[in-house]
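Hey L., structure's done. Input below.
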Amino acid sequence: MKRKIDPTLFELCLGIFLYGIVFEIILLFFSRDISYSLGLWIGVILAMAGAVHMWWSLDRGLDMAEKDAVKSMGVNNIIRYLVLVLVIAALIYTEFANPIFAFCGYMGMKLSAYFNPLIHRLCTRKIDV
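Output:
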């Protein structure tokens, strides 16, 4: 059974990706350090994964009884933030990529949520012939 992606989730992920591209272009003007770019894209990927996990947990939680849904959403929120903290801690420990820019990439989820009405209009705009 093939499932279609939720349009709002698609628009959120598209906004996160566009944020990453714009941030990367600005970042390249100031520094060519590869660890900054790696950190940024690790954060962008984490943000997209977090958005998908949030959509999945909300979709699942809406089918539950209220008491179970509250418990499930709380656990899923903790899991999301724990994964973020563990990845940032791993980046700090290994010095593989810049953890500050990873966090900046993750904040793309917030900015994308704010710009979602604009992205929605751009995605659903009909071209008149």
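The helical segments are 7-30, 34-61, 66-94, 99-106, 108-114, 116-124. The CA atoms of residues 15 and 112 lie 5 Å apart.

-- N.
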